[in-house]
Amino acid sequence: MKKSVDRRSFLKLSGAALGIGVLYQAMPAAQAKGAVGEMFDHMGKQTGERPTPFSFVQLSDAHVGFNGPPDPLGTKAFERAVEMVNALPERPELILFTGDLTHDTEEKDVHAQRMKQFLEISRRLNVPLIKCVPGEHDAGLDGGAMYREFLGESSYSFDHRGVHFVALDNVSRAKPEVGKEQRMWLEKDLARFPKSAPIVVFTHRPLFDLKPDWEWFTSDGDEVMNLLSPYENVTVLYGHIHRDDAHELGHVHHYAARSLIFAFPDPEKAPDKKPVPFDKEHPFRNLGIRLVHENFSGQPLVNAAAIEDVELTAREFSGINGMQQLLKEPEL
Amino acid sequence: MKGKVVAGALMVVLAVFMASPRGARASEPRVIEIHAKRFGFTPDQITLKKGETVKIRLVSEDVTHGFFLRPLKIDEEVSPGQPAEILLTPGQTGTFTTICDHFCGVNHGNMKMTIVVSE
User: In chain B, how many domains are there?
Assistant: First the structure.
């Protein structure tokens, strides 16, 4: 017997690109019954928490310590982002920071100072939970030693309100790769979940060949995706490319957040990977700093150039009710 | 009988000895040496012919570098004192950007060179 599910009432994950980052809302149906309810119950048993509504923000690529022509304002955009997140009408429960928290330097003392400055600014966030992964500028020169000293492990997982979050490190081996050891850990980590479990992977580099000659790839990304693809509700959030991007590969959706320092151009249009020049009249334009309307689900953002609204809705996968993200065009 | 066998074996060895150096020289690929040093390659452009096998000899002058070019399936690393060799027979024409994909410092993102493959 085919089960009937109200696709829009199942679970909604909406993402609004703030420019300063991305705000997501996970909205599982409060009264989910039948197969969906059973799945939620199962998730509740696995994670100790049944999926319930919450919101979180993705921030990326602050490059604390960078101060050059593409952005002579240093940490101003990062600090502005913190203010904006704190001003959101609905307080997010979680921040995911997808790498390049700091800009690299070979002077260890200076890099340590940059790590401290990152922590000082990020602690101003009025958000109970902040989770990070490193970028190559944090961890590429020392195999992630200093990153781990300040921020802990670079790959790990945790559960939040029934959603399984996985932090993947694809920078600490200096090459753009996850590596066999971490892939084995990932496979084991995922094994306890049903195939319909909602999973959010956050990492620094794209896990697919977005633009390999700009180093926008992960060399063993296909092997990672082979581990993730049996799961029907996987979202991958990443940074590194300093611009919005949305890709759907199979049933997995990949989203990049903008940076907090400078933007890179569209690789399909620009001949070279050169930062978008700084505009002193509009210092945050290329970072897309935007104000968020109180009701971001139905109202447009102010001064926005590109808004993403992503919904997780119910979908049947091989007879199992799962979730799928749908990317909506901006409603401006 | 034993003497004939030894003589035959000697002739075979002699034939191989005489033939091999010429044959090896005739089929040895062209060697192109590329030096990697933060944050560039020297030379920064080489031109190859489609179907011609070449040997790229990579030498690092400072730290570990990568040498990555997805379309031609090149993914190599080179460390100081340990040159790397790549046998390459390009199967397609075009202009390709090869990058260092082993993070090597602040301007790592700009470390690249061009490989042109012509007919």
Answer: 1
Q: What domain range includes position B71?
A: 29-118
The torsion angles phi and psi of B111, rounded to 5 degrees, stand at -85, 105
Inside any domain, residue B52: yes
In-domain check, residue B5: no
pTM comes to 0.80
What fold is seen in the domain A7-328?
Purple Acid Phosphatase; chain A, domain 2 (3.60.21)
Q: Is B94 near chain A, with CB under 8 Å?
A: no
Q: Average the pLDDT over A160-169 and give the result.
A: 91
Determine, for residues A136 and B102 on separate chains, whether the beta-carbon distance falls below 8 Å: no
Contacts of A215 in chain B (CB under 8 A): 68, 99, 101, 109
Please list every residue in chain A whose beta carbon sits closer than 8 Å to the beta carbon of residue B106.
103-106
CB contact B65 to A (< 8 Å): no
Query: CATH number of the domain that B86 lies in?
Result: 2.60.40.420
- Token digits of residue A313: 């809705």
Residues of B in contact with A103 (CB under 8 A): 106
Cβ separation of A219 and B105 shorter than 8 Å? no
| Cα A198 from Cα A163, distance rounded (Å) | 5
The fraction of chain A above a pLDDT of 90, given in percent, is 42
**How high is the mean pLDDT of chain B?**
86
- Residue B21 included in any domain: no
What are the domain boundaries of chain A? 7-328
**Confidence at residue A286, expressed as pLDDT on a 0 to 100 scale:** 53
Mark yes or no for CB contact A209/B70 under 8 Å. Answer: yes
Beta-carbon contacts of residue A43 (< 8 Å; ≥ 6 apart):
A49, A50, A51, A162, A193, A194, A197, A198
Residue A74: the pLDDT is 85
Buried b (16+ CB within 10 A) or exposed e, B96-111: bbbbbbbbbbeebbeb
Which pLDDT tens digit goes with each residue over A8-31?
Answer: 333 445 555 554 556 666 655 444
Q: How far is B51 from chain A (nearest CA, A)?
A: 23
Per-residue pLDDT, averaged over A228-241, amounts to 91
Report the complex ipTM: 0.76
